[in-house]
UniProtKB/TrEMBL annotation:
Belongs to the metallo-dependent hydrolases superfamily. Adenosine and AMP deaminases family. Adenine deaminase type 2 subfamily. It comes from Georgenia muralis. The active site is at E191 (proton donor). It comes from the Bacteria. This is Adenine deaminase. It is an enzyme of class 3 (hydrolase). NCBIfam families: aden_deam, PRK09358.1-6. InterPro entries: A_deaminase_dom, ADE, Ado/ade_deaminase, Metal_Hydrolase. PANTHER family: ADENINE DEAMINASE. GO terms for biological process: adenine catabolic process; hypoxanthine salvage; nucleotide metabolic process. Coiled coil: none annotated. Residues 4-318 form the Adenosine deaminase domain.
Amino acid sequence: MTMPTVELHLHLEGTLEPELIYALAERNGIDLPYDGIEDLRSRYSFTGLQSFLDLYYANMVVLRTEEDFADLTRAYLDRARRAGVRHAEVFLDIQAHTARGVPAAVALGGVTGVLATSEADHGITSGLIITFLRHLPAEDARTALEEVLALGFPVLGVGLCSSEVGPAAPFKDTFDLAHARGLHRVAHAGEEGPAANVREVLDVLGVERVDHGIRALEDDALVDRLVAERVPLTLCPLSNLRLQVVDSLADYPLVGMLERGLVVTVNSDDPAYFGGYVDDNVRELTRLLGLTPDQLATLARNGVEAAFVDDARRAELT
Ligand code: ADE
Ligand code: ZN
């Protein structure tokens, strides 16, 4: 079976496993408001995106030091290697840390220090995408980007995530600045929000990939455009199931999307919270949808096409 080897939609903070949350809390002397690991895990049952985000942001309290961010990144890469990942582009919600008083340099230093040696240590090439939080004022995103640029840590791109409420247009100047500085652009859209949100991030933010984008299926003309322009959609099946974006994985529209020629990829989003890493996502879909070797090979090829890598690395991954 040809498994996808590229992961393009992964929030580092969404890889915080309950065991690591408790280990970091102990190291940092933080009292958690849960009755232990099993109690925390029992809360991983969500009614929608916001109910997940509330717990996801709350658990970030344990990330305080550069070492914490490094340990988080290393734990993800260890698990991703076991999943067969050879290239990963990972998201970091920098504002969720600076808003808690953690300096951007601490978070970025910890993450980028580990990513710098990911190929040597884990056999995974990697890049960092700074994701701005859509529920915060757009001026905060601009300030965050300026700070990240001034600090000079290696960054591959920018993204937009969090609750899919309000227009994306206010983030245009931040995305324009990122583009002018040579950064790639992606955005979450069409997860809980409508197909119009996918159009908006393409037209206004100039994104090269759409994160989720599953609700683009509600707009035929948009699907035609995504196919014609080969805009990748980074799908996250277990996430969609756990956040009730879809009712069941047995009805997941992946095969229809492949047949229409959409450049879809399979990813894990926040694997610690949604019950599986990228290999688990692919295995579940394969089991429930009966994906063929050809379809799996197309998914793998799509991931390589959608990755922000140079031709030499693309050839190696192919
Ligand atoms: N941040 C982390 N996971 C997310 C998701 N699935 N959608 C939007 N923002 C997120
Ligand atoms: Zn996401």
